């Protein structure tokens, strides 16, 4: 679909735009809905890739780059998702969405000074998000000129001085916040947190605050580690996989390979999701050339359970209850020895399971007892089980309790610390896990700060800083005056869009370090900078030679990524160089050798090796063929919990059943988007074309409300504080999902997510569980 700029300009000029600019490209045709019956990946994916490459004019650069992606110590890490590289190394382990993502960065289009001279910021703010990003790569630093309402060029030196001066003049360091999006490499991450802490603040909000915060906190509480304990080899040898709350075919497509292999091996694969997503059916693995040629597909599921939104904890409790009931006659149903030696809290957990009536478990999960027993039998019969999950579990009020319930279930049968078993969260951004490991944490531990202080000679602040929600609120109050975004698109990714806009606009200075133009550049503070950086695919040439950066995947593997493409512009700087530039200007008396670090990342790694657990001998180990795996104490059955054991939790079941007349609505991604980056208005696996402003509903819920297919509806969300937010004129699409549930796309629906609606357990915005009413448009 090729609308973008010209069409967009015409529409803008003719005043056709509504008050809110569109997110996706302008419609290229009539919206349509035809359920998709083909296997995931396969030729559908191949066709989509070739169309995309053709549109992006990347036919030459694209394929060559892809061959260099995710290869054993050569080439760059796919900036797509955080799924680990296949340890079999030589296979072309790539996916449709990874290719789109890399090509997106390698586009030949450029946004230079002429572009900014031509278009005022007011004009740009009327453009769709698609059109903004579609202009191509940013090429030089720009500063906002309020008199002319245009971005104008600024030298790197003056840009750093503006940041430095503004930070130096703050009344307190806590008046600045430093956001990270999960693509930032480990070395830049380390420098970034060092800068913030040397300035004197732990205000380090990150995308994780909206993503897997709940998973980290739950695993920390239960197992004394914030991460999963399994790796890809475990996936390749497990007997049963439970895949919960993830749309893998779109968001972690390389998981399809693991699922197909598991199926062929005879493993059981249980999908838990209100929707039956493409990964819960069949796949043709793109790198399996014989299957591609013959059209032979492999099943990727043995059981699908359509829970209600928020009903996962009830299902897990039901499975545990069934296993405990069986253990009365069959002691082998439990791993008694494991429970006695390695865990604490079992008796309380058993009591809470016994005390939770089946009727309540059925009501809260939205599933029949018979179906829950099927899942329990799979779990009971498997010698080794892995439970994997993503946002469908984490972005909820009770996300922490739910992930802890996963661990409870695993502990019952000793599914931890042995091959083929354990918890396996699917992380989002390619280095979001590495960010946390390397210090992006608004609640750092005292041990980490002590080591940082000792090694780096600084006096880091001890009080907790602000997370994402806290930062928006503080900007709005005027308590945070400087916002620095190290990647990402805060304006669109954060909840409560209009309020987040207000918050960013009330800042004295907003700084966005980015590769492409996005909403966060046109929704800005009184002063604003756009600082363009190298992408992961590009050669990073510093004084000591070509640099590499390291990243950590979902399964704790750390490896190097080396860009090989010529940079999009010769004025781009690497992220470490930009951070060093800002830090030097903001901290004139700093003991940290910022420039020296930015010249050679080996020097940063040497310091990291002294500060971070598990990074000993970093420079050598990261250069091993597949990098190295950070030790997971819980995998060795060493639990860094207060009791020194794995801790059962015994939380009561939350009430997630929607009140009469209301629905639970979850926001999610389409197949053709990467968070706030939208590639097209299609969602292939869900059968949608040319439409993003939609809401998926159960057919009976539609009928009851007098809503027909593609009928326009108004959606009103009610927040915890009773305030309401609304979206009008979205089109309803009947979908196979439980009654009482509805779903639609982020970021369009972020307008509905109240800032005050965050989980008490994780502080995560409730992006998967809004309380809404939906009615035909008036
Ligand atoms: N191509 C592509 N890849 C991506 C991304 C992208 O935007 N595009 N984003 C990356 C990022 S940052 C992340 S965090 C991940 C996100 O990966 P996902 O977690 O797959 O992201 P969502 O699209 O939000 O989909 C959530 C899934 O949870 C289901 N769900 C909703 N509510 C519930 C519930 O209550 N229970 C259960 N069991 N399921 C539920 C939805 O039906 C949907 O299948 O993907 C990463 N990878
Ligand atoms: N309603 C709702 N909201 C959500 C979610 C949801 O499920 N529902 N999901 C949440 C989740 S899981 C996440 S992770 C966040 C995502 O939030 P963010 O990470 O803030 O958003 P992205 O869309 O991934 O950021 C895209 C921008 O990153 C910049 N970029 C790309 N590559 C690079 C690079 O190499 N370096 C730098 N410096 N910049 C780069 C580009 O300018 C691009 O426009 O959104 C959250 N928001
Ligand atoms: Mo994420």
From TrEMBL:
UniProt entry tagged with the keyword Lipid metabolism: no
InterPro entries: Asp_de-COase-like_dom_sf (IPR009010), MopB_CT_YdeP (IPR037951), Mopterin_OxRdtase (IPR006656), Mopterin_OxRdtse_a_bac (IPR010046), Prok_molybdopt-oxidoreductase (IPR050123), YdeP_MopB (IPR041953)
Cofactor(s) demanded: Mo-bis(molybdopterin guanine dinucleotide); [4Fe-4S] cluster
Molybdopterin oxidoreductase domain residues: 137-513
Domain of life the protein comes from: Bacteria
CDD domains noted in UniProt: MopB_CT_ydeP (cd02787), MopB_ydeP (cd02767)
GO CC annotations on file: membrane
UniProt keywords, alphabetically: 4Fe-4S, Iron, Iron-sulfur, Metal-binding, Molybdenum, Oxidoreductase
GO molecular function: 4 iron, 4 sulfur cluster binding; formate dehydrogenase (NAD+) activity; molybdenum ion binding
SUPFAM superfamilies assigned to the protein according to its UniProt record, in alphabetical order: ADC-like (SSF50692), Formate dehydrogenase/DMSO reductase, domains 1-3 (SSF53706)
Composition-biased stretches (Basic and acidic residues): 1-14
Region (Disordered): 1-39
Family: Belongs to the prokaryotic molybdopterin-containing oxidoreductase family.
Name listed for the protein in its UniProt record: FdhF/YdeP family oxidoreductase
Organism listed in the record: Streptomyces broussonetiae
């Amino acid at each position: 679909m090729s609308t973008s700029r010209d069409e967009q300009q015409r529409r803008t000029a003719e005043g056709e735009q509504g008050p809110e600019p569109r997110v996706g490209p302008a419609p290229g045709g009539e919206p349509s809905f035809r359920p998709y019956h083909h296997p995931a990946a396969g030729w559908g994916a191949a066709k989509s890739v070739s169309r995309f490459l053709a549109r992006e004019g990347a036919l030459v650069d694209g394929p060559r780059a892809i061959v260099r992606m995710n290869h054993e110590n050569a080439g760059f890490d796919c900036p797509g998702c955080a799924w680990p590289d296949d340890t079999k190394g030589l296979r072309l382990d790539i996916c449709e969405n990874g290719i789109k993502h890399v090509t997106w960065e390698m586009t030949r289009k450029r946004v230079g000074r002429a572009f900014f001279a031509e278009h005022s910021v007011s004009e740009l703010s009327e453009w769709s998000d698609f059109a903004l990003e579609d202009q191509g790569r940013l090429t030089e630093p720009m500063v906002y000129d309020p008199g002319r309402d245009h971005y104008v060029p600024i030298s790197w030196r003056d840009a750093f001085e503006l940041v430095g001066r503004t930070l130096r003049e703050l009344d307190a360091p806590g008046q600045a916040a430093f956001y990270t999006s999960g693509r930032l490499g480990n070395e830049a991450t380390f420098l970034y947190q060092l800068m913030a802490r040397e300035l004197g603040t732990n205000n380090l909000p990150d995308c994780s605050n909206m993503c897997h915060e709940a998973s980290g906190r739950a695993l920390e509480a239960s197992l004394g580690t914030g991460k999963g304990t399994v790796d890809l080899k475990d996936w390749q040898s497990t007997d049963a996989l439970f895949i919960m709350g993830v749309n893998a075919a779109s968001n972690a497509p390389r998981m399809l390979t693991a699922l197909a292999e598991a199926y062929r091996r005879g493993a059981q694969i249980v999908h838990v999701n209100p929707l039956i997503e493409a990964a819960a059916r069949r796949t043709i693995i793109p790198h399996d050339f014989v299957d591609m040629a013959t059209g032979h597909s492999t099943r990727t599921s043995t059981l699908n359970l359509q829970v209600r939104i928020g009903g996962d904890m009830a299902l897990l409790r039901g499975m545990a209850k069934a296993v405990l009931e069986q253990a009365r006659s069959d002691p082998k149903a439990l791993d008694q020895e494991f429970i006695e030696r390695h865990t604490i809290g079992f008796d309380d957990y058993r009591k809470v399971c016994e005390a939770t009536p089946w009727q309540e478990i059925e009501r809260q999960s939205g599933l029949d007892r018979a179906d829950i027993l099927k899942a329990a039998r799979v779990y009971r019969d498997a010698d080794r089980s892995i439970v994997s999950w993503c946002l469908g579990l984490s972005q909820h009020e009770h996300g922490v309790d739910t992930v802890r319930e996963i661990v409870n279930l695993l502990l019952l049968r000793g599914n931890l610390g042995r091959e083929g078993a354990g918890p396996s969260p699917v992380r989002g951004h390619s280095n979001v896990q590495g960010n946390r490991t390397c210090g992006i944490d608004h609640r750092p531990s005292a041990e980490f700060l002590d080591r940082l202080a000792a090694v780096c000679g600084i006096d880091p602040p001890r009080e907790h800083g602000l997370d994402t929600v806290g930062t928006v609120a503080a900007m709005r109050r005027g308590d945070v005056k400087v916002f620095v975004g190290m990647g990402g698109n805060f304006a669109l990714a954060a909840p409560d869009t209009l309020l987040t806009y207000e918050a960013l606009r009330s800042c004295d200075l907003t700084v966005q370090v980015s590769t492409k133009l996005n909403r966060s550049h046109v929704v800005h503070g009184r002063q604003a900078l756009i600082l363009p950086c190298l992408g992961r695919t590009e050669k990073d040439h510093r004084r000591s030679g070509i640099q590499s950066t390291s990243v950590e995947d979902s399964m704790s593997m750390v490896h190097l990524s080396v860009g090989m493409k010529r940079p999009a512009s010769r004025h781009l700087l690497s992220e470490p160089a930009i951070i060093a530039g800002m830090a030097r200007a903001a901290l004139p008396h700093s003991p940290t050798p910022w420039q020296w670090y930015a010249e050679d990342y080996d020097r940063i790694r040497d310091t990291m090796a002294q500060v971070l657990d598990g990074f000993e001998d970093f420079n050598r180990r990261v250069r091993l063929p597949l990098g190295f795996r950070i030790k997971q104490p819980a995998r060795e059955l060493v639990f860094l919990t207060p009791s020194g054991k794995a801790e059962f939790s015994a939380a009561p079941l939350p009430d997630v059943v929607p009140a009469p007349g209301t629905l639970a609505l979850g926001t999610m991604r389409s197949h053709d988007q990467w968070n706030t980056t939208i590639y097209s208005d299609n969602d292939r696996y869900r059968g949608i074309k040319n439409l993003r402003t939609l809401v998926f509903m159960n057919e009976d819920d539609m009928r009851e409300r007098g809503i027909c297919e593609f009928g326009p509806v108004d959606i009103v969300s009610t927040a915890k504080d009773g305030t309401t937010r609304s979206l009008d004129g979205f089109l309803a699409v009947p979908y196979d999902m439980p009654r009482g549930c509805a779903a639609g796309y982020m970021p369009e629906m972020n307008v509905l997510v109240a800032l005050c609606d965050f989980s008490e357990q994780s502080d995560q915005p409730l992006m998967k569980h809004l309380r809404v009413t939906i009615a035909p448009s008036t």
